[in-house]
Amino acid sequence: MKTTAPAISFHNVTLGYDRHPAVHHISGEISRGELLAVVGPNGAGKSTLLKGIVGELKPLSGSLSLDGLGKRDIAYLPQVIEIDRSFPISVFDCVAMGLWRTIGAWRGLRARDKQAVIGALRTVDLVELADRPVGSLSGGQFQRMLFARLLLQDAAVILLDEPFRAVDTRTVAELIALIERWHREGRTVLAALHDIEQVRAHFPDTLLLAREVVAWGKTPQVLTPANLAKSRTLTEAFDSHAEICERDEELERETA
Ligand code: ADP
Fold first, then answer.
1. Is the N or the C terminus of the chain less surrounded, counting Cβ atoms within 10 Å?
2. Locate the ABC transporter domain: which residues (predicted)?
3. pLDDT tens for residues 21-41?
4. Domain count, the chain
5. Which residue of 20, 48, 234, 245 sits with most ligand 1 atoms within 8 Å of its CB, as the best mutation to test the pocket?
C-alpha cells in the first residue's frame, strides 16, 4: 500500500481525440516524489496520457485530479517533433522563459534572474552557446537547453515525453543525472520512454501501457516478458476508429 500522498490521481479516465478513445479506463495514483517511467509500444497512448495530465486534453470520461497542485506546478516537455526549432530566439532567451512563473511574462529580467539563467546553462554545459539562435543547435544541445529551461521552472511535477529521442549517448547520461537530481529533490517525475533497459536501470516505478494499463508498480515486476508481450498484442489489436470501447458496450448491455 502506498503511504505517501498522491500527486496525481486517475479515476477511470479515458482520453482520446474527436471522441475516439486513445487510452482508456485508467485508475490509480502517482505518489508525490515518484520517479515513474511510462512505457509501451508506439501508439500505446503514452503521449496522450501526459497531455491529459497537463490539461491539453480533457478526459472523454472519468476524471483526473492533481491533488493540491495547480497547472503552474507542472512542467511539461513535449516530444522534440512537436517543438518548433525554427523559432527565432537565442538559447539564453529560450531558457529564460523557464522563469515566467516567477517573473511574469512581460517583466524584464533582474540581475539575479540572469544569474539563474546562466547557472542553468552552466549545469547543462551550454554557457558558451547562450547567444546562438536555438535553430543552430544539434539535437543533443537542443534537448539540454530544454532541460535547462525545466530546471528554472522549478516545478513540483515534471512530465517528459521521450526526452532522449535524437540525443547522443553522452547527453542521455547527463539528462538522466538531472532527472535523478529532481527525484532526490522530492519532485514527481514522469517520463514516456521506449528503451526498456534505460527504464530498468534508472526508474524505480513503471506504468506499462497498451491503450489501457497492462501493469503498474515496481519496475522489475512490471517489465516482465509476459507483460511486454501483452502490451504489444493489445496495442496492435486496438481499434483506433471505435467510438466506444468494448468495455463500455458491455456496461451498456448490462445496464440496459
Ligand atoms: P505513444 O505516445 O504511446 O506513441 P500516442 O499517445 O501518441 O501514443 O497515440 C495513441 C493513439 O492516439 C494513436 O493511435 C495515435 O494515432 C492517436 N493520436 C495521437 N495524437 C493524435 C491526434 N492529435 N489526433 C488524433 N489521434 C491522435
1. N
2. 8-236
3. 999 999 999 999 999 999 999
4. 1
5. 48
